[in-house]
Design a protein that fits this description.
The complex is a heterotrimer of chains A (about 250), B (about 775) and C (about 130). Chain A folds into 2 domains: about 80 residues, Arc Repressor Mutant, subunit A (Orthogonal Bundle), CATH 1.10.10; about 100 residues, Glutaredoxin (3-Layer(aba) Sandwich). Chain A is about 35% helix and about 10% strand. In chain A, strand 3 and strand 4 form a beta hairpin. The longest helix of chain A has 17 residues. Chain B is of the alpha/beta class. In chain B, the strands form 8 sheets. Chain B has a 7-stranded mixed β-sheet. In chain B, strands 2-1-5-3-4 form a 5-stranded mixed β-sheet, with helices on both faces. In chain B, strand 11 and strand 12 form a beta hairpin. The radius of gyration of chain B is 30 Å and the shape is globular. In chain B, about 50% of the residues are buried. The model of chain C has no long low-confidence stretch (mean pLDDT about 85). Chain C is mainly alpha-helical and about 130 residues long. In chain C, helix 2 runs parallel beside helix 4. Chain C is extended, with a radius of gyration of 19 Å. The chains are: A alpha/beta (about 250), B alpha/beta (about 775), C mainly alpha (about 130). Chains in contact: A-B, B-C.
Chain lengths: ~250, ~775, ~130
């Protein structure tokens, strides 16, 4: 009897906590359907530039001619790099035209992958890892610091069009958690970089943002000066000596 | 005590097979839950009985209680359930396949044997586990699996246990292997289904009371049969924005369970790649991404295949519940295909039209025109006999007066100047009566609209689809002559598309530019191209000659052309050169446009002269609204007998109200020569009468009494003229004899072929009166 | 029933045929005066006119023109007043009025059977209904 009441109470408490403003987390930058806007509608002509046309041809050559649709992800990626980090409907239509499928098949892929942005992002798209290890190591604070510094909400672009902040899933840098990724779309697909900045602190991310704003290129990788890559802070503590040779069986015992 | 038990089992054992037999495949939607339930019941009872009879120590002999049939104790105690041995001795009665499923062995050596719940079943190689279970008479619950669509395997509802497999397997996607031991009724399978059902119901709204699918919902039925009685989900349910798919399909996307049947249907059968699965995970939704209406002539079928209430009929929304409706199995007359339909009516009102399964004609789809024309049956109807007064206005009169006026005029006019035209929706019986009446008056100028002048009606092969609609599936080359199957006969188009998908059939098309939903070559627009092919000068010739089963389809729209005889002989030349007609394959087809055409030609309704309308003084229109009356003389007396106030009513002097196809019993022959009957679903409106009855009554008033008083009598009259019209639900193939065909001296004109149908959604008086069809043609028809 | 009777005074018998006759005229006038309100109550404006109703009442009265017994006339008058009371008190429904006074006793079928001489049973039933 008491157990049931306690369980009931627990459930109520959980319900209260669940009512957080962030009811549903959205990783993608847009809705699952398209709404026409002046800068994103099917009537705008969009095509690959000359250099990227060559690249697209090169990508298509990786696949058999009757399986052109396999090139959908690389082509969408290329289109996204060219278009400043996001995909318009017309860009997706162009990809569909190139790989000879119905546009909806491309939309399906583009909506499936959260790394394809279907709404405008900044020239530097900052992605904060929100998966458990990074979260435990303070990714919430990092995101908060970024948003506060830039004065935007998540998935919102700053007024100067330089920055936007998003959340993403684990990028496998848990050993250097917390981390952020900077997708640099400022130089089109040629100068496109996608760099990880690891071991960041709320202070450090603001510095990184300011360096990017000035056009500098902060060094990617761990931002903790006491660490070398994924090594422990302050140099190695174990495995200091030369590793011993593989053990050989006792030959004399035979 | 033992007696009591035996009687009980006997009753169950007798009742259940009847239920199973009755449960039609197409009615599965409604009866699936029950069917599965009963089959489970039956099985368990029989097993129980047999085990108990085998072991005299069984508790049945010791206590007087029959063990209640419940699933929970077994679930909680799997050992006990497994300990219950399945006997392999004779007492197992043979079970009939679900819904009378036919098993076709393409190659007898490929048969393999599997065991479903211990029953050995022989199935062809390549069958899935689910199909094997169906053959064994076990109905597996499913959402995403549909026998006519590709396999997705994403709903996981069809999980079964397979011996030696560590996990339950999705039976719809698992090919059956020889000797496989499939178990559909084990605790593991039940638990798996229950779990899947709990997940499916997690995000499904609890709005069954306001859902139009309620009562015929797969999810509802299956959650009753296989679901748990409680869920553990306490979070918020997700919600999804509704999509606008046009005036026919209503979407409530929150109810969607992501089975992707609609996506696969649109892509594979309808051939419009509009729908897709957008997003991922819990954000997944069906949609078109960009705002786009579903511009397919088969879009209504997604309503039927949707297992939940996500896609429902927009015109039918909130109109009725399925259990209030009376279903009448009837035939569609919107085109010459003769799709099998079920007319659902409530009282005097047709509420909706659904397809019936007929593998030979429409499979289980129908076109949007067929499905949504029904609201035209409620508008613009003619209620009373009417006579046009001197002021040009119609005045309602009694039948007695109306018939007296018509008979009087008819008797005053020269027999040669009497002309009768049957409409495109006429049934064979009334056309017979019309012809007989006019013949008795001394005239033989009677024909059916759409059949044109001087159409040869001597050889049935000359106006029928000789390779049959289902036969088109086997063809590998199509030559469409002036024929746009997508608008002329959407179900035939679906077959051609099926052939294009499965046999990679080539399609060549001669005619005005038009829409196709499959790969095709546009060879030309007029008879010249036809001539080139006949003379072997066209690259497409080799495709025809090299084909295993070439099919030529000529549109009946060409009947209206002056040079049709020349065109038909050219087509025959092509057929001869390409060896299209062989003992085992007749690929020379005519695709008719109207429901009445084939029967009219069978009955010999052809005009005597080309100038019949110009010289007519008395014109009897039996529902004919698409004849050109411009050349009619001003003083001609026009009688319009029909059910809708449509084109011809403007010129009519007397109106005789008749019954529409949903209100009468009538025989129709479809384009392949398949004879079927409509049945009255609703009563006639106002003071209307059946067509043949009006003609019969008129004949008596006019003094030339027709010798039949009932449909039976007319049918025995038809037996003399066209006996094939009496073999209902049978296809009477034409015996082809190209040799005795007379040669025609005409040469072809160079006028390009015209489109036979301007607007798919408005082709006859019913569809022209329909509001839904008007919306469709405004929004969907491509300009 | 009681409330309809309450409004009805049973007048003493007519002494002579003359008195009965004048009572009939009085009744006719009363009935005619109530026609507008009857039309209002039963919403008859679109099916019948005042004069049609008036002539219906007159013909109903004339049906009994041959009666010369004052007692019988008094009885018929009583029945008529009762009917009128029922109608004005909305004790009837619209279809009663339509059936009895607008369409007449014979209903929709106005044809007399004399014309049907010599026609077949088929035609006879055809004129009546589609279902036979």
């Amino acid at each position: 009897m008491f157990a049931r009441q306690a369980a009931q109470r627990l459930l109520e408490i959980r319900q209260i906590f669940r009512q957080s403003p962030q009811a549903s987390r959205s990783f993608s930058t847009a809705l699952n359907y398209h709404i026409d806007t002046p800068d994103n509608n099917p009537n705008i002509r969009w095509e690959f530039n000359e250099a990227n046309k060559e690249k697209a041809k090169e990508i298509l050559s990786h696949y058999p001619s009757n399986y052109k649709q396999s090139a959908v992800i690389p082509l969408l990626d290329l289109a996204q790099q060219q278009h400043g980090g996001w995909l318009t409907v017309s860009a997706m239509n162009e990809v569909a035209r190139i790989i000879e499928v119905a546009p909806i098949r491309v939309y399906e892929v583009a909506t499936f992958y959260s790394m394809f942005n279907r709404s405008k992002v900044g020239k530097y798209h900052l992605l904060v890892c929100g998966t458990t290890p990074c979260m435990i190591r303070g990714s919430r604070e990092i995101e908060e610091a970024l948003l506060k510094h830039l004065g935007v909400k998540r998935n919102e672009v700053t007024k100067d069009g330089l920055f936007s902040v998003g959340e993403m899933e684990c990028m496998g840098c848990c050993v250097n958690a917390p981390m952020i990724t900077v997708a640099d779309y400022s130089n089109g697909s040629e100068g496109y970089t996608y760099n990880y900045y690891e071991d960041v602190t709320p202070k450090r991310v603001v510095e990184i943002v300011e360096m990017l704003r000035k056009g500098e290129k902060p060094t990617p990788g761990t931002q903790n000066p006491n660490r070398i890559k994924a090594g422990p802070e302050g140099g190695n503590k174990t495995l200091l000596s030369e590793p011993p040779a593989p053990r050989c069986r006792d030959l004399e015992a035979c | 005590m033992n007696k009591v038990f035996n009687r009980r089992t006997l009753v169950v054992a007798i009742e259940v097979p009847i239920l199973l037999l009755n449960s039609d495949r197409r009615d599965r939607k409604r009866e699936m839950g029950l069917g599965i339930f009963t089959s489970m019941l039956l099985r368990r009872t029989i097993i129980q009985r047999s085990t108990k009879l085998l072991s005299p120590q069984s508790p049945i002999f010791n206590n007087s209680f029959v063990r209640p049939i419940v699933s929970t104790p077994e679930l909680k105690n799997p050992e006990a359930a497994q300990a219950d041995p399945v006997p392999d001795s004779p007492p197992l009665p043979p079970r009939s396949p679900v819904g009378g499923a036919r098993v076709h062995f393409p190659n007898p050596e490929d048969a393999i044997e599997v065991f479903v719940d211990g029953y050995p079943v022989k199935i062809p190689k390549g069958f899935t586990v689910l199909q094997a279970c169906e053959v064994a008479g076990v109905d597996i619950p499913r959402f995403c699996y549909h026998s006519r669509l590709s396999i997705a395997g994403n709903c996981r509802m069809c999980l079964v246990e397979v011996e030696k497999s560590p996990k339950p397997v999705a039976s719809c996607a698992m090919p059956a292997l020889p000797g496989m031991k499939i178990k559909t009724d084990t605790p593991m399978a039940k638990k798996a289904r229950e779990g899947v059902m709990e997940f499916l119901l997690m995000n499904h709204p609890l709005d069954c009371p306001i859902c139009d699918q309620g009562g015929e919902c797969d999810l509802q039925d299956q959650s009753m049969a296989f679901g748990s009685d409680r869920g553990r989900f306490t979070e918020m349910k997700r919600s999804v924005v509704d999509k606008n798919l046009g005036p026919l399909v209503k979407t409530v996307m929150t109810r969607c369970i992501q089975c992707t049947r609609c996506v696969r249907f649109a892509t594979e059968v309808a051939g419009v790649q509009d729908l897709g699965m957008l997003g991922r995970g819990s954000g997944e939704e069906i949609g078109t991404y960009v705002e786009k209406l579903m511009t397919s002539e088969l879009s209504g079928n997604v309503i039927d295949i949707c297992p939940v209430g996500a896609l429902t009929s927009k015109p039918f929304a909130f109109k009725a519940r399925n259990w209030e409706l009376k279903g009448t199995e009837s035939i569609d007359v919107m085109d010459a295909v003769g799709s099998n339909i079920r007319i659902d009516s409530r009282g005097p009102e047709v509420m909706r039209i659904l397809p019936r399964l007929n593998e030979d004609i429409n499979e289980e789809w129908i076109s949007d025109k067929t499905r949504f024309c029904y609201d035209g049956l409620k508008r613009q109807r003619l209620n009373d006999p009417m006579i046009r007064g001197n002021d040009g206005r119609f005045k309602a009169v009694s039948w007695r007066d109306a018939l007296a006026v018509v008979a009087e005029v008819m008797n005053q006019i020269n027999p040669e100047e009497i002309v009768g035209i049957a409409g495109q929706l006429s049934d064979a019986e009334s056309m017979m009566a019309l012809k007989d009446l006019l013949n008795r008056m001394g005239s033989n100028n009677v024909w059916c609209e759409g059949n044109g002048m001087q159409t040869q009606a001597d050889l049935r092969s000359g106006y029928l689809m000789n390779s049959s609609i289902s036969g088109l599936e086997k063809a590998d080359v199509f030559l469409l002559v002036g024929c746009q199957p997508r608008v002329e006969a959407a179900m035939v188009n679906a077959r051609i598309r099926k052939a294009v998908r499965s046999n990679l059939a080539k399609v060549g098309y001669i005619g005005p530019p038009t829409d196709f939903n499959y790969e095709h070559q546009h060879l030309g627009t007029g008879p010249q191209t036809l001539l080139q092919i006949a003379e072997g000068r066209h690259p497409f010739c080799s495709a025809i000659t090299n084909a295993k089963k070439p099919a030529i389809i000529v549109s009946a729209g060409l009947f209206e052309r002056e040079d049709k005889d020349a065109i038909f002989s050219t087509v025959e030349a092509i057929a001869k050169n390409g060896n299209v007609i062989r003992p085992d394959w007749n690929g020379l087809n005519v695709l008719l446009l109207n429901a009445a055409q084939a029967a009219a030609l069978d009955l010999g309704l052809i005009p005597e002269s080309n100038k019949a309308i110009e010289s007519a003084k008395f014109l009897y229109l039996m529902g004919a609204d698409d004849v050109n009356l411009d050349k009619l003389q001003g003083d001609a007396f026009v009688v319009y007998q029909g059910h809708h106030g449509d084109n011809s009513v403007y010129r009519a002097n007397v109106i005789l109200p008749a019954a529409a196809f949903s209100e009468k019993e009538g025989t129709y022959e479809n384009t392949e020569g398949f004879t079927q009957q409509t049945l009255p679903a609703v009563p006639t409106v106002g003071d209307a009468r059946d067509d043949w009855k009006i003609l019969r009554a008129l004949s008596e008033v006019a003094g030339v009494k027709l010798p039949y008083d009932s449909l039976m009598d007319i049918r025995s009259r038809i037996r003399i003229v066209a006996p094939n019209l009496l073999s209902i639900d049978e296809r009477e193939p034409a015996t082809f004899s190209a040799l005795i065909k007379p040669e025609f001296p005409h040469s072809m004109s160079s006028t390009p072929f015209k489109a036979a149908i301007e607007n798919f959604y408005m082709t006859n008086s019913i569809t022209r009166a329909s509001k839904i069809m008007a919306q469709c043609s405004a929004q969907l028809a491509k300009k | 029933m009681a409330f309809t009777l309450r409004g009805l005074k049973v007048s003493p018998n007519s002494a002579s045929l003359e008195e009965a006759r004048s009572r009939v005229f009085d009744f006719f006038k009363t009935a005619c005066r109530s026609i507008p309100s009857i039309m209002e109550i039963y919403n008859l404006h679109d099916v019948v006119t005042v004069s049609q109703l008036r002539s219906t009442i007159a013909s109903e009265i004339r049906k009994n023109a041959h009666i010369d017994n004052p007692k019988v006339i008094d009885l018929l008058l009583f029945k008529g007043m009762e009917e009128l009371g029922n109608i004005t008190e909305h004790a009837k429904q619209r279809h009663h009025i339509l059936g009895q006074y607008v369409l007449g006793k014979q209903g929709l079928v106005q044809d007399s059977s004399t014309k049907d001489e010599g026609i077949s049973p088929f035609l006879k039933s055809f004129y009546e209904t589609n279902y036979f």
